[in-house]
Design brief:
- The complex is a heterodimer of chains A (102) and B (304).
- Chain A has 102 residues and is of the alpha+beta class.
- Chain A contains 4 helices and 3 strands, in the order H-E-H-H-E-E-H.
- Chain A has a single domain, classed as Winged helix-like DNA-binding domain superfamily/Winged helix DNA-binding domain (Arc Repressor Mutant, subunit A, Orthogonal Bundle), CATH 1.10.10.10.
- Helix content of chain A is 51%, strand content 19%.
- Chain A has a 3-stranded antiparallel sheet with strand order 1-3-2.
- In chain A, strand 2 and strand 3 form a beta hairpin.
- With 304 residues, chain B is mainly alpha-helical.
- The longest helix of chain B is centred in the first third of the chain and has 34 residues.
- The radius of gyration of chain B is 21 Å and the shape is globular.
- The chains are: A alpha+beta (102), B mainly alpha (304).
- At the A-B interface, helix 2, helix 3 and strand 3 of A face helix 1 and helix 2 of B.
């Protein structure tokens, strides 16, 4: 899983969000470290929809523009959890070992 | 403007949403996307093109072949049109090649071929290529003794791209849907002019920095085609899309085939075999590199 994809899924964990909502949420969750560009966000969302990990929640018109909000599917929640467990296992390989202490 | 990187079918569906998100993410008063946003839109657009095309493996082959033939003919057309304009402006006094009428005709026939292929009218494209063979045959007729026989009259590069077009014309399922072409053609014409200019600049740079022998090699290897190949390979790598790389393979192979043919049949005084051999190696290396990128990007599974 690519890094932007992981952050998109993580941002959607608490409920459905529209495009800019995802960018903002990922920014907050990472304490400002993750800044998703719009082009990157939609590549990730399109692939996630193709794979059935994310689906369109609502389509609405805001300020004269069509806007979609997205939510995680069950498979998306599972894939995110599996990826987080993989990362935690990788982190355990290093953290807490004497050689890794600063 | 950056949204043009995205395919039209996608833009129709997602235009408003994408623009809305860009506006929300923009700083107050900001009119243009930042360099970072622009870069993401360019790669995003290219990757979206690749993702939609990947739905049909056949389309990867037909799109790549067609683009390769179009670039080959468009570069030839730009070069010939340049020569044709040169004749119109300066007359034949400054040129040592004496077939201005045929050059004008050749430029027109090439232009017809390019338009026909962009419009996916393959029969017209094939007819234009047959016309090219005749025109080039007439031009070379007087030099025939130097060219080692009638085999030289069928240009190998042109024959190769014509075979690709014949393959595309052969079966209806290989034809793309007819799509609006004036915009595509304008973009192609601008790209061809830019390419000619870049080719000349590249040539100037080589002439200034290297020995004259190398500059002759680069002339023969066609700097425009090398620049086009570099641009297409960059697009393929950015967009994770095998189609531009396949296109580069097609026209680099056609170019190399033409040079191998010349090397094999041409002889006589004034023919610099060593220059041609080096240029042929450059073209073959370009074709091999493009083929490697094609195979790698076609086999690579894009991660989620």
């Amino acid at each position: 899983m690519r890094e932007p994809t992981f952050h998109v899924l993580a941002a959607l964990l608490d409920g459905s969000l529209h495009g800019y909502g995802i960018i903002k949420r990922a920014h907050e969750l990472s304490d400002g470290r993750v800044r998703l560009a719009a082009g990157t966000l939609y590549v990730a969302l399109d692939r996630l929809r193709d794979a059935g990990l994310v689906e369109v929640d609502r389509e609405e018109v805001v300020e004269g523009r069509a806007r979609r909000s997205y939510r995680l599917t069950g498979a998306g929640r599972e894939a995110l959890r599996a990826e987080a467990e993989r990362m935690a296992a990788a982190a355990r390989l290093v953290l807490g070992r004497s050689g890794a202490r600063p | 403007m950056w949204l043009l990187a995205y395919p039209g079918e996608y833009r129709r569906e997602h235009d408003e949403e994408l623009v809305g998100t860009l506006l929300e993410a923009a700083a107050p008063g900001q009119e243009w996307p930042s360099a970072r946003e622009a870069g993401a839109l360019l790669t995003g657009g290219l990757r979206t093109r690749a993702r939609l095309a990947a739905a049909s493996p056949l389309r990867m082959w037909t799109d790549g072949l067609r683009l390769g033939v179009i670039v080959y003919l468009a570069v030839a057309c730009a070069g010939t049109t340049g020569l044709s304009l040169h004749y119109v402006v300066f007359g034949t006094a400054r040129g040592n090649l004496g077939y201005p009428d045929l050059v004008h005709l050749e430029a027109a026939v090439l232009a017809i071929g390019v338009v026909a292929l962009v419009w996916a009218a393959y029969e017209v494209g094939l007819a234009a290529m047959a016309g090219m063979v005749v025109i080039q045959g007439v031009m070379m007729w007087n030099d025939l003794p130097l060219l080692g026989g009638p085999v030289a009259l069928i240009p190998a590069g042109l024959a190769l791209v014509a075979a690709a077009v014949a393959a595309l014309a052969w079966h209806p399922s290989l034809r793309p849907a007819r799509r609006p072409w004036p915009a595509r053609l304008t973009a192609l014409a601008l790209a061809a002019i830019a390419l000619e200019t870049l080719g000349f600049l590249a040539l100037d740079a080589v002439t200034l920095t290297a020995a004259p022998a190398l500059s002759r090699v680069v002339v023969v290897a066609q700097p425009e085609l090398l620049v086009a190949a570099a641009v297409l390979l960059l697009l393929a790598l950015l967009g994770l899309d095998p189609r531009p790389a396949l296109a580069a393979t097609v026209f680099a192979a056609a170019d190399a085939a033409g040079q191998v043919q010349t090397l094999a049949v041409a002889h006589g005084p004034g023919f610099e075999a060593a220059v041609f051999a080096q240029a042929t190696l450059i073209s073959l290396a370009t074709a091999a590199l493009a083929l490697a990128v094609t195979v790698l990007s076609a086999r690579r599974r894009v991660p989620i």
